[in-house]
Design brief:
258 residues, alpha/beta, eight-stranded mixed sheet, 11 helices, catalytic activity, AB_hydrolase_1, AB_hydrolase_fold, Pimeloyl-ACP methyl ester carboxylesterase
């Protein structure tokens, strides 16, 4: 099958100003999978190689860029808070005719997908979370520099360049595609979190939930409480925070696990 028939870029209007979410879509059959990236990432760059491995190949898969990131538009009047990201994502899925999807969220994208599943349960039949952000992110420790160390004006006029130098070439490769205002507001959205927190929302969801933790990362806070709430927690060997990049085969096997 020609490449253009298997993999296409699509979009949907999600804002009153006409702003669009865009995604790379892999054709296939069966229940749809939706992949959502983390802060400063881009969905196709993080997920395509994994979602086409044998355990996962053949399913319709949407690798979606949140507003302000990757291929999507960058509206200046958007808040970029987690709930608002989730609502915009819901509008894109509605436009694509998606319901009851298996939704895969990484890092910040995990928090967004938890909010999505809570706010629009018709859209999500299962959650697979790769080191999702479950609690409000504290400000940088004294002496450290992070995105939220800057005001919005400071970040957009030089702070982002400083952060790009700090994070290293892998993350910077996709972070540089983000709108500085969107990245800054999203970082403050992570500091604010959701209400209730993403952790509490996740524990209350009635759908199948899998939480993946990289063995090279810090231990998962509250793991036993998540497991008691029915969340399947799996440690992935030879992986850090970017599990799908560090150990794609193991990541694919866990996404395929039923």
């Amino acid at each position: 099958m020609p490449t253009e028939e298997r993999e296409k870029m699509r979009d949907a209007v999600v804002g009153p100003d006409g702003s669009r979410i865009r995604w790379v879509e892999i054709a296939g059959s069966g229940p749809v999978r939706v992949c959502v990236h983390g802060a400063g990432a881009q969905a196709a760059a993080y997920f395509t190689h994994t979602m086409t491995l044998p355990p996962l190949a053949g399913r319709r898969t949407l690798m979606m860029d949140l507003l302000g990131f990757g291929l999507s538009d960058r509206p200046a009047n958007f808040s970029y808070r987690l709930d608002d990201h989730a609502d915009a994502l819901a509008r894109a899925l509605d436009s694509a005719g998606i319901s009851d999807a298996e939704v895969i969220g990484h890092s910040m994208g995990g928090a967004v997908t938890i909010a999505l599943a809570s706010r629009r349960p018709d859209l999500v039949s299962r959650l697979i979370l790769a080191e999702a952000t479950l609690d409000p992110v504290p400000p940088p420790a004294p002496g450290n520099v992070g995105i939220t160390s800057f005001t919005e004006a400071e970040f957009t006029t030089g702070g982002m360049a400083q952060i790009l130098d700090q994070v290293g070439p892998l993350w910077a490769a996709t972070m540089r595609l983000a709108d500085p205002t969107a990245l800054h507001r999203s970082a403050f959205g992570l500091r604010a979190g959701t209400s209730p927190t993403a952790r509490k929302l996740l524990m209350a969801l009635p759908i199948p939930r899998t939480f993946l933790v990289g063995a090279l990362s810090q231990p998962l806070t509250g793991r036993s409480e998540l497991e008691a709430a029915g969340v399947r927690v799996v440690t992935i060997p030879d992986a850090g925070h970017n599990i799908m990049l560090d150990n794609p085969q193991a990541f694919a096997e866990q996404v395929a696990h039923r």
